[in-house]
Amino acid sequence: MHGTAANAVSALMSVTLSVEGGTFTAVMGPSGSARARCCTARHGLDRPTSGRVFLDGAELSGRGEGALTRFRRQRVGFVFQQFNLLPTLTALQNVLLPLRLAGRPADRERCVEALRRVGLADRLDHRPSELSGGQQQRVAIARAMAAEPKVIFAYEPTGALDSHAAHDVLALLRQAVDRWGQTVVMVTHDPVAAAHADTVLFLRDGRLAGRLTAPTPQTATAQLSELGA
């Protein structure tokens, strides 16, 4: 819920859902459906005013900001539409940074391996300005994977990319699940992107409005049309 008194708005209402480990889930819905809010509540960036939130068996409700920050650094990876790379750092240094901020051993070899997985073994020393948009998003995915999180949350990860780079990034998120056992939850408005997931959850007006297994671009588009998107 956001706002106070008469201006209060309930972003999510009576939403109960779970995501199985080692799967790829997409979250879709019309504008204002709270699809992003659903995920920010799941990893503690938003605090629910009622209900309970669990991630990897740990309850997040009631934790202080410091505890939530430490929890996210240890168990959650993020990929955003904007790549959020530090321009003065190389690709490898950007991947190493979250581990150092979390006070964890900065395992250089593990970070190099993460960049190799996303096809950037020959770009370790390149700064963001020396990389294409698709390559920068690959660095962001490597950064998310290097910490070996329990779940990766991706927010419109292809929104700033052309169709070719978007396809490559979605294939990498799919591989993160199939080859490396990660759990991926992706917020997207794009039915083509959603078709890479195992399951699509549809939200409307802050409520769970549907679920689609083994989606295709056509079936995801049809479901969105029924919701008025």
What can you see in these coordinates?
It contains eight helices and eight strands; from the N terminus they run βαββαβαααβαβαββα. It has 229 residues and is of the alpha/beta class. It has a six-stranded mixed β-sheet with strand order 4-5-6-1-7-8, with helices on both faces. Strands 2-3 form a two-stranded antiparallel sheet. Helix 3 (91-101) runs parallel beside helix 5, helix 4 packs across helix 5 and helix 5 runs parallel beside helix 6. The two termini are 23 Å apart. Mean pLDDT is 87; it is low at 1-11.
Short description:
This protein is α/β, with parallel strands linked by helices and 229 residues long. 37% of the residues lie in helices and 15% in strands.
Task: Itemize the secondary structure elements and their pairings.
Layout: E1 24-28, H1 35-42, E2 54-55, E3 58-59, H2 65-75, E4 76-79, H3 91-101, H4 108-117, H5 133-146, E5 151-155, H6 163-178, E6 184-187, H7 191-194, E7 199-204, E8 207-213, H8 217-226
Helix pairs in contact: 3-4, 3-5, 4-5, 5-6
* Rg from Cα: 18 Å
Secondary structure tally: strands: 8
Bin the strand percentage: 15-25%
For the record, give the distance between the C-alpha atoms at the N and C termini, rounded to a whole number: 23 Å
How can the largest sheet be summarized? 6 strands, mixed
Strand order of the largest sheet: 4-5-6-1-7-8
Number of continuous helical runs: 8
Order of helices and strands: EHEEHEHHHEHEHEEH
**Shape estimate:** globular
As residue ranges, the low-confidence spans are: 1-11
Name the assembly state.
Answer: single chain
Q: Give the helix/strand class.
A: alpha/beta
